[in-house]
User: What shape does this take?
Amino acid sequence: MDARDDDLVTLDMPARIWAGIDAGVDNAISSAAENGDDATVEMGQRIRQAGWDQVPWVNGVWPPMDQVISIRLTVAEWRFAADEARRSVPIYEELGDDESARSGRDALAVIEVIGR
Assistant: This one.
């Protein structure tokens, strides 16, 4: 059975991977805001807020980067995050930013388990 866009899916990942997803979505929000793309800004903000609400903060501090966390988003939100990572990896590779490119690939490896 195919997942619907509004189905909720929880994915487990190291906090490092969520941090990369959050940063990629933040980049998408910034670009969309410059281009007047309100729908993308809204979607990105919703994803980031959901993550902030679910990250197990420790005394107001981000958890250790290797700590496994669970993030629950809709299928549409996960697809948005995957599309952003997929779009950005070649850009990071071209810029020689291996760490960011690896972060995008790691995010895709986690997110793509839900399928397209």
Q: What stands out?
A: The mean pLDDT is 93. The chain has four helices and two strands. The beta strands are 8-14, 68-74. The first strand starts at residue 8 and ends at 14.
